[in-house]
Amino acid sequence: MSRATRESIADSVVATGRGDDGTTGLLFGGRVQKDDPRTEAYGTTDEAVAAMGIARAEIGELRHAGSLPPELEALADLLLRLQRGLFVVGAELAANPDAWERLQAGTTRVDEPMLTELETELAAYEARIQMPREFVVPGASRLSAALELTRTILRRAERRAVSLQRDGLVAGVWLVPYLNRQADLVWVLARAAEQAEERSTTLARSMPRPR
Fold it and tell me: Is residue 67 part of a domain?
């Protein structure tokens, strides 16, 4: 690496250089490899936050264009709450196990009220939609597709968290159920978006060919 490049990094607020050895810091101290299962897990939740941001941005575009269905007016605020919930998930996954007692419920550790809130929203949105009876192919609208992308990332985060939980590396009992329920909710939100935008749901199984 050239001297000029090193000087530019030294002047950066974002780049510290401490991760150049392939390690990253844990919450409350300690370092692990960047490909550590814990890093993979909370990095995946970060991906879900970003994908959900695409959905929120699409809602903003629809609102700006005057074409946001009234049924989706509250969706951006709900997605923001879900994003913030994932930051709590990330904090719990990134915490040094030696300092788990310092985690705070609802802030750096997922708690039962967070799960209950998801279940309340899930029941409310389920009551508003017509539930498909088959698997759905994403792509009916940009908003629903962004939500489906988010759902798949949440499922991957859930799988990573299950592996960590099996190895005793998840601090609390509510984190895995929270990821599970959030993925369920986001799937329902995708259907709500399709139906509010009056888009036809594409089913995974095509109609039988005529004989």
Answer: yes
